[in-house]
Specification:
Strand content of chain A: 15-25%
Number of strands of chain A: 11
Structural class of chain A: alpha/beta
Largest interface: A-B, 35 and 30 residues
Distance between the termini of chain A: 37 Å
Largest sheet of chain B: none
Number of strands of chain B: 0
Number of helices of chain A: 6
Largest sheet of chain A: 5 strands, parallel
Strand content of chain B: under 5%
Order of helices and strands of chain B: HHHHHHHHH
Oligomer: heterodimer
Shape of chain A: globular
Helix content of chain A: 25-40%
Chain lengths: 211, 228
């Protein structure tokens, strides 16, 4: 990891907005996210939470306002590999097993030091399902298979769109645990969620979205 | 942080698409069966007249192979867009064009290569002289990747639209015409004992150009398709 000046926020948005057919999808947003911080993006259905995350990930172009990564204007090439995005579409191939899906992700994104696919799958609660085609897994198990990427791939900023959807109580606790470990290790995360979420590691920052 | 090199990323990509194709072997067999059936029907429809069949054999095999390839073209990126794999690929710290090049290569291996393997059989069914078959194979080896690459660009361009099949067929037609003309020209020249190197060279030149430019165009088109 690069030693960063703690005063410089990892991610900073200034009057950020996204335009769809020249109409702003959400009201201009200002926020800062420092290393070790967790932000909870809140808002009603259709308030633009997913749009915001897709924009931060670099899938959508920035509509209006500015987006800074480590103090410099965000460019896709510079922060590629540092940002991990997990959207509604899980990015799992239904014909491949969780193990194969993870191996491909590791081939493209790289691996954390010492992280092993089998150990990661066991930790995420998929022991015994490593070689089952993803199509035969339940919705929650698929979600877990996608979340396993968080443990395996190196990234500083996690952008998680509804990570708690489809998960059981143990799964929700697991995600909270992952987030806590990630922020403790100096990472940052932006999470959208509808439900009331309790993090062990202090109160998360809230980003409220208005249509 | 250990970021993977280009080679591991390329092999991961290629292996993924080949594994996926292998898990759905039935889909690979479909174009092959289609091509075999079409070639088999020609002698029945035209009558078993050797000279006539010989004259049309090269063209029939080429057109059948190219049309059979179109059957599978549509699906090149659609499943990746649906399940979100493409988003992950776009966000990976790898050159997108190269990764898409690997996808196109995998697509060529799984759809065009089986067709090229059965092409001598198809040619034999239409009584194409044995000496012409190497030229036919060479023409196919150059024309099919060209079609895969051009097709990939068009599939990427129409990726965001619903019911893109019709649009795709319309756009691809003018682009396949030169490939068919040069490939068939080479086969016809070889059949008449004329030099066939010139049309083959044109095909090769077009292929080189497409190998360089098509993945870049695909990458740009898919980024735009996702950015909506």
């Amino acid at each position: 990891m690069t030693a960063a000046n703690p005063a410089v926020p990892l991610l900073e948005a200034r009057a950020l907005s996204f335009l769809r057919q020249d109409e702003p999808v959400f009201a201009p947003l200002d926020f800062q996210l420092h290393a070790g911080e967790l932000a909870l993006v809140e808002g009603d259905n259709g308030s633009g939470k997913t749009t915001l995350l897709r924009m931060l990930a670099g899938l959508l172009h920035v509509g209006e306002g500015e987006l800074h990564w480590r103090g410099e204007p965000l460019q896709r090439d510079r922060c590629a590999g540092e940002i991990l995005f997990l959207g509604h579409q899980l990015g799992l191939k239904a014909d491949l097993s969780p193990r194969e899906n993870l191996q491909i992700a590791a081939g493209l994104h790289g691996c954390r030091d010492g992280a092993r696919v089998t150990a990661v799958l066991a930790e995420i609660g998929l022991r015994g399902y490593e070689d089952e085609p993803a199509r035969r897994l339940s919705a929650g198990q698929k979600k877990r298979a996608a979340l396993a990427r968080l443990l395996l791939l190196p990234a500083t900023l996690w952008l998680l769109d509804e990570p708690y959807a489809n998960l059981d109580r143990i799964g929700i606790a697991l995600v909270n645990d992952l987030l806590e470990k990630h922020t403790d290790a100096g990472g940052a995360a932006l999470v959208t969620s509808h439900g009331a979420v309790s993090f062990h590691g202090g109160e998360p920052r809230h980003i409220r979205m208005h249509a | 942080m250990n970021r993977p090199g280009l080679l591991p990323a390329c092999t991961a990509m290629l292996r993924r698409d080949l594994t996926l194709a292998w898990r759905r072997r039935g889909d690979i067999a479909m174009p092959v069966l289609y091509a075999l059936i079409v070639t088999m029907l020609f002698p029945f429809a035209l009558g078993p007249e050797d000279t006539l069949l010989q004259r049309i054999a090269g063209g029939v095999v080429l057109v059948t192979v190219l049309l059979a390839m179109l059957l599978a073209l549509d699906a090149m990126f659609s499943s990746d867009i649906e399940d979100g794999s493409l988003e992950q690929l776009v966000l990976a710290p790898q050159p997108l064009a190269l990764m898409l090049g690997m996808k196109i290569l995998a697509h060529w291996i799984t759809t065009a290569l089986p067709l090229i393997v059965i092409a001598p059989l198809m040619a034999a069914m239409l009584h194409l002289p044995g000496v012409v078959i190497p030229v036919l194979l060479l023409a196919l080896l150059l024309a099919t990747p060209l079609l895969s690459l051009l097709g990939a660009v068009l599939v990427a361009l129409t990726a965001g639209t619903r019911r893109s099949g019709m649009l795709l067929a319309l756009m691809l037609l003018p682009l396949c015409v030169p490939a068919v003309i040069f490939a068939a020209g080479a086969v016809a020249a070889a059949q008449q004992g004329l030099p066939w190197l010139a049309p083959i060279s044109w095909l090769a030149a077009a292929l080189v150009l497409a190998v360089v430019l098509a993945p870049l165009a695909c990458a740009a088109a898919l980024r735009i398709a996702l950015d909506a």
